[in-house]
Design goal:
This protein has eleven helices and no strands. By secondary structure, the protein is mainly alpha-helical. It has a single domain, classed as ABC transporter involved in vitamin B12 uptake, BtuC.
Length: about 290
């Protein structure tokens, strides 16, 4: 029973780390960054390449170093996507297209990155050295520490206050001396770094690395973010834990093959009962 609960909480913690990336970007930009799952996938490839080619024989130190490489790659990719794909749209798109264009662009970037990975790395699965993977209890500890740090960043630091100000009203924040573009870049960087940590933990303990891995964990993370209340850091944590627990429960029943369907059914039920999510808050929209 303890081992099962530990595994479920570890699963939930990894999903929550990825969900935080979705919820941070949405909280600031009101944009669902569907390319986030492919940033996760690319960072996983960066970690396995670093571990096998740069830090082979380094033991657990090599695992840590390859994780740092994955974070750097994820941050660089996330910031590049924001600057190349999303920022021009924020400056040019008006009216209804201001919402639709970024969403379509996010989906397009996701498909592009998945195709690039297919060409560059082929469909052959790759594996991190499972012998160097952290035990499940340490996955929970790592995720908890990261989440506590993120909560402190958002609520106790100047950049966190700037993020919340831009989320409420970017123009008013600009008049107060805040640079919204810099805040948005920082948000993408932090969210992408969290995705890299989740990717390494997930690939090291759960599944091989392949071009479609981002879709698998990204879908669960997106559901977790929405169930918990997208835009809420605490909601992403709660949603991740709930999805992890639900997934482990379903796997132990005769409905194990329907795990994803049951997870999305939970999403529908939560949205019907509380459209803003469990910890989310409905906001007035400008018209």
């Amino acid at each position: 029973m303890i081992a099962w609960l530990l595994n479920a909480l570890a699963q939930g913690a990894m999903i929550a780390l990825v969900a935080l990336g979705y919820t941070m970007v949405y909280g600031v930009l009101r944009l669902i960054n569907f390319a986030h799952s492919e940033v996760l996938m690319m960072s996983a490839y960066a970690s396995v390449i670093a571990q096998t080619r740069l830090f082979a024989g380094f033991g657990r130190a090599g695992m840590v170093l390859s994780t740092l490489v994955a974070i750097v790659v994820a941050v660089a990719l996330g910031v590049t996507i924001e600057m190349v794909a999303y920022r021009p749209l924020r400056a040019r798109a008006k009216g209804a297209s201001a919402r639709v264009a970024p969403l379509v662009t996010a989906i397009s970037v996701s498909v592009l990155l998945q195709s690039v990975a297919q060409l560059a790395f082929t469909a052959t699965p790759r594996n991190l050295d499972r012998a160097l993977a952290p035990p499940m209890w340490s996955v929970i500890v790592i995720a908890a520490l990261v989440m506590v740090g993120l909560h402190a960043l958002v609520n106790l630091t100047w950049i966190g206050k700037a993020m919340r100000a831009v989320a409420v009203n970017a123009e008013a924040a600009r008049l107060m001396g805040i640079h919204p573009s810099r805040v948005i870049v920082f948000t993408f960087a932090v969210g992408s770094g969290l995705a890299a940590i989740g990717a390494v933990l997930y690939a090291g303990t759960q599944a091989p690395i392949e071009p479609t891995m981002g879709t698998a964990i990204g879908n669960l993370a997106f559901v977790a973010a929405v169930v918990g209340g997208i835009g809420s850091v605490q909601g992403a944590m709660l949603g991740g834990v709930l999805i992890g627990l639900l997934g482990e429960i379903v796997k132990r029943t005769s409905f194990s093959g329907m795990k994803d369907a049951i997870v999305f059914a939970l999403l529908v039920v939560v949205l019907l009962v509380k459209p803003a999510g469990l910890l989310g808050q409905a906001r007035a929209e400008k018209v």
